[in-house]
Amino acid sequence: MPTEHADGPGFVHHACLYGSDEQFLATALPFVRDGLTAGEPVLAATTPANIELLRDALGERAHALDTAETAYFGRRPVERVSAFLRYHDRRARPGRRMRMLAEPVWGGRSARQIAEWKRMESGLNVLLAELPVWMICPYDTRAVSADVAAAACVTHPVRMDGGRARPCAGYTDPLAYAAAIGPAPETAPATAARMGPTADSAAVRLFARERAAAAGLTGERLALAEFAVAEAAGYLLAADGARVALRIWEEPGTLACELLREDPHGASVPAFAGFLPPDEAPDPEDGLWLARTLSETLEVRAEGDRTRLGLRLAGLRDAECG
Amino acid sequence: MVHPHGGRRRVHVGDLRPGDHACLLFDSDEERALLLGGFLLGGLDAKDKILYLAGEGPAGHDALLDRCRFPAGPPDLSGQLEIVGPAEISSGRGEFEPAALLDRLRAAADRGRREGYRALRVAADLGALLRDGRDVHRLLRYEALLAAEFIDDEALAVCQYDLRRCDPAALDTLAAAHPRSVELDPLVRTADLVVVRTFRPPGLRIEGAVDAGSHGHLREALQSVAAVRGDVRLEMSRVEFLDLGGLRLLMTFARARAARHYAVELTGLLPHLLRVITLIGWDRTPGLRLGAAHAY
């Protein structure tokens, strides 16, 4: 869990709700300026307008500020976490904390995407807990819904207003929050193609390939769809004696895939499984990270004695991946 | 299936059957020794009469067996193996006589049949006849005769040519006279995965699918080239599936090689594998070189 105070050793995660440029600068400017003065790496991953505000206010010091247009700094939560870690690995200095202003883009997102970003905001408290990073996440109350603004105070232990830090009364344990947030994975329609349950990972993979090909995917996209399903199935099948059932069906724009594992021993799935990219040492969740990264969305749910894993892969009509 | 390496189909030395006429173009003594060893052991298993045509080099039983690398020690081939030395291959005038050599092979085949052997297995090391462009036409004549009049259901042949010592144009012509090329038996041969040791440059050719069930096989195959001094190439254009765990094995191998200042080159990777390697950041793995990708 993150420390509440910025002088602690680990990850510090603050929200900043602002309703005007002045309010944004009231929090962001001292945060950035103090970091630069202390010789810390400072990243502002926010909107181009906010980056401009900060640069203007910093004057000459703006040359030392690292910036990223937030919409491109990890398009999806799993990529966002990788982007944070990559920045950290690139810029970390021994014994020194670093600072990040990290403003997600909430506008125009689907309900499923918003749930996933909220889940990630909460999950950062767990995923980055050991990292010597002080992160402030600005939320523009002129642009975000009341629901998203309220969630900021549930997913961050502390909020900043100007230079003042106040604990968030509604802050919720990330594991409990993640389990409760967002729509449950959609279950397969009766028309879905089905196979299993089976312990044969190659059979699962080949079935997924066949269905993806039948949905019109070819070449690299077909291979990546096969890869994503194979790695997701591999994660479930790593449990002793596990068998998975596979359901695949087409939705507009996506190829939906559901993997079901009956868990007689109630094996639980970590709420933030597969959000951290592979490291030098192998980790059982590496395959899930890859499946997440290659899917449009990936939802893992423990449902009593069953694990349900839902992937949505970019379909033939997804022009972005064409 | 269309073979990516031209018209000549490859055959593993352990899969050679009567009727096969295959060539081995080698530039590594290790490859030749391992292949010859496999050829002799294959003859032992199949109860074939073995004829070694020694254009140069070891003309004695023991010297020939010493040249091969038998993991379990040299086999007992007494009576089964005959060696035809340089003096018998060329006539008294020092010229190579294809028809005379064919007669010699026929006599050996007859003898072998009488002795109860299944077939005649010929290993030919006639590259020395190509030095200075000498005898190319006679050698071609011999290969043509061998193919047309000798190789049948009761004979098979492997013709070895040393790339380091023969004229490339002559070799191309000679190689074309063989319907097949021969290579070592795979290090791994399962229903889904085949891994073959390669020598130009040293490395492995990986074919098929690598998943959780075959990581152990891939690890062992990589281990078999761990001692190679110099860079290693892994040829992957016939890899149909390679999971994350398999990719990790390749990265671990590259890092270990980098510690000895050698590189590992992956060639023929499918584009999606290159993409995954880059997504994870493994493209920056020390010692790893990513060669040209392969089209789907």
UniProtKB/TrEMBL annotation, chain A:
<feature type="domain" description="MEDS">
    <location>
        <begin position="13"/>
        <end position="157"/>
    </location>
</feature>
<dbReference type="InterPro" id="IPR025847">
    <property type="entry name" value="MEDS_domain"/>
</dbReference>
<protein>
    <recommendedName>
        <fullName>MEDS domain-containing protein</fullName>
    </recommendedName>
</protein>
<dbReference type="InterPro" id="IPR047718">
    <property type="entry name" value="RsbA-like_anti_sig"/>
</dbReference>
<dbReference type="Pfam" id="PF14417">
    <property type="entry name" value="MEDS"/>
</dbReference>
TrEMBL record, chain B:
<protein>
    <submittedName>
        <fullName>Anti-anti-sigma regulatory factor</fullName>
    </submittedName>
</protein>
<dbReference type="Pfam" id="PF14417">
    <property type="entry name" value="MEDS"/>
</dbReference>
<dbReference type="InterPro" id="IPR058548">
    <property type="entry name" value="MlaB-like_STAS"/>
</dbReference>
<feature type="domain" description="STAS">
    <location>
        <begin position="204"/>
        <end position="296"/>
    </location>
</feature>
<dbReference type="InterPro" id="IPR002645">
    <property type="entry name" value="STAS_dom"/>
</dbReference>
<dbReference type="Pfam" id="PF13466">
    <property type="entry name" value="STAS_2"/>
</dbReference>
<dbReference type="InterPro" id="IPR025847">
    <property type="entry name" value="MEDS_domain"/>
</dbReference>
<dbReference type="InterPro" id="IPR036513">
    <property type="entry name" value="STAS_dom_sf"/>
</dbReference>
